Amino acid sequence: MKSKPIYVEIPINVPIQRVWDASQDPELHAQWDVRFSSICYLPKEEDQPQLFTYTRSVGPLLTVEGWGKSSGSAHLANGTRSSSLHFGTDQKISPIKEGRGYWKYEPIEDGTRFLTQYDYTSNFGRVGQFIDVFFRPMMGFATALSFDVLKRWLEKGEAPASQYQRYFMTQLLTVFFCVFMVLSRPCAEADCNASARKVYDRKWIIFI
Question: Residue 102 — φ and ψ, nearest 5°?
């Protein structure tokens, strides 16, 4: 069964130009998009698509490197803009083999509706298709999280790095306390049972 493309949209209360700049400038883009560690534009030839390379570090020992090209953009009379993208990687370790998508910028009353849709093919054949059942929702979540970070950056001025630091610290603390509660529950139950036995023994002695 063919998987559904990933689709995310968000209203951002700033003019289109600011959203366009933050998403088309590779240095700015890499700051808020958690799917990338770095994006580097290659020298552009006249009348040719913009080529670029990207990296995504997964822990201290693994870095996925990929390629991409902005295959076209459009500016409509009503102010709407769009940008299409072709991307992929030659590294077999990556769950993503190759994909295509677009960004769209629509003017709305309070600013800009920023949206994206993209799809990709997986590595590893049928095994990769099975892995993608779990990986694709993670990519969708990462895209939505990145859009939220971009929105807060442009609207509130809070740097993406500080947002991600706070977010991941919150998640780590949540996991820690969940694990703590699960591990401490057997001890609490044991203490409760011990107390109950003491009460029962006292009642038995009084009864005798």
Answer: -150, 160
Burial of 84 (0-12, 13-18, 19+ CB in 10 A): middle
Range list of β-strands (E), the chain: 6-12, 38-41, 50-58, 62-75, 81-88, 96-108, 111-122
Tell which phi-psi region holds residue 49, choosing left (phi > 0), alpha (psi between -120 and 50) or beta: beta
- Each residue's pLDDT tens digit, 81-118: 999 999 999 998 999 999 999 999 999 999 999 999 99
Specify the amino acid at residue 53.
T
pLDDT tens sequence across 138-157: 999 999 999 999 999 999 99
For the chain, state the CA radius of gyration: 25
147 with 179, same domain: the answer is no
CB 142 within 8 A of CB 131: no
Taking the alpha carbons of 65, 71, 75, 76 in that order, is the dihedral positive or negative?
A: negative
Give the residues across from 108 on adjacent strands: 111
- My answer on whether 118 and 62 are in the same domain is yes
Q: Within a domain: residue 1?
A: no
What's this model's pTM, rounded to 2 decimal places? 0.82
| Residue 154 and residue 184 share a domain | no
Q: What phi and psi, each to the nearest 5 degrees, are found at residue 118?
A: -150, 160
CA 173 to the chain's CA centroid: 19
The CATH number linked to 149 is: 3.30.530.20
**Same domain? 154 vs 116:** yes
